């Protein structure tokens, strides 16, 4: 277990190659250690070596078919590979094994949203919120699904809650600004763009471009 635990620590620190070395050693010493395969799988996933990750999750599931996290992790790899139906199948299995994992509902919601199935996504995000009412991520993603459905008031409510839970979420301000802009509330949209720029200067070019559009629309409205 020592190599497994140290490998996990290396992975959490972003030292993926060192993590894989330790996890290889853990598996060499104990080929039945399913958690080492799982940990190596998400290390490969962080490196975007998705086929290697899937192989490790397959082995994890072979060794422990009731390990819900492995199905969730493999589903995330399929999600990143845009294999949405396979992802959804894995998320269903993870939920069947452990219905209390709020993050799996969020992940399945992401897969449904990627397929354009917004109502299904909203149901999953709502279930995640029921299980974990302090999940800013669940509110944020439900907000984006409402936005995609052009239900801007509901989107704004969820972005408000996201910001309440995570006041430094620049994307929540940016997406709320889109909802305000589409409602014709240009002043509020501009305020949110400004806050997004303050919180995440790295995306200044994108945010400023969006702010200029809102400012031009606001000018036209006043003419």
Topology, element by element:
Elements: H1 2-12, H2 16-29, H3 34-46, H4 50-63, H5 68-80, H6 84-97, H7 102-114, H8 118-131, H9 136-148, H10 152-165, H11 170-182, H12 186-199, H13 204-222
Overall pLDDT: 92
Task: Count every helix, treating DSSP H or I runs of 4 or more residues as helices.
Answer: 13
State the CATH topology of the largest domain.
Serine Threonine Protein Phosphatase 5, Tetratricopeptide repeat
The fourth-level CATH homologous superfamily of the largest domain is Tetratricopeptide repeat domain
Q: What would you report as the Rg, rounded to the nearest angstrom?
A: 21 Å
The number of strands is 0
The profile of the biggest β sheet is: none
General form: elongated
Count of individual domains: 2
Main CATH class of the largest domain: Mainly Alpha
Helix/sheet category: mainly alpha
Helix content: over 70%
Uncertain runs? none
**First-last Cα distance:** 70 Å
What would CATH call the architecture of the largest domain? Alpha Horseshoe
How would you describe what is shown here?
The protein is an all-alpha fold. It folds into 2 domains: 162 residues, Serine Threonine Protein Phosphatase 5, Tetratricopeptide repeat (Alpha Horseshoe), CATH 1.25.40.10; 56 residues, Serine Threonine Protein Phosphatase 5, Tetratricopeptide repeat. The protein is 80% helix and 0% strand. The chain has 13 helices and no strands. Helix 3 packs antiparallel against helix 4, helix 4 packs antiparallel against helix 5 and helix 7 runs antiparallel to helix 8.
